[in-house]
Amino acid sequence: MDHTMLRVHKIKLNPNKSQEQYFAQACGVARHAYNWALAEWKRQYEAGEKPSEMSLRKQYNAVKSVDFPWALDVTKCAPQQAIKNVGTAFRNFFRNIKQGKKTGYPKFKKKGHRDSFRADNGPQKKGESSVKVDGKKIKLPKIGWIRMREEVRFSGSIQSTTVSKMADGWYVSVLVETEDRLQAKNDKGAVGVDLGVKTLAVLSDGTDVKGEKSQKKFLNRLRRLNKSLSRKKKGSANFKKAKTKLSKLHKRIADIREDSLHKLSNKLATEYSVIGIEDLNVKGMVKNRCLARSISDQGFGKLRAMIEYKAVMTGSTVIVVDRWFPSSKTCHVCGTIHDLKLSDRVMNCDCGNVIDRDLNAAINLRNYAVSSTVSACGVSSSGVTL
Question: Can you tell me the mean pLDDT for 335-359?
Answer without folding.
Answer: 85
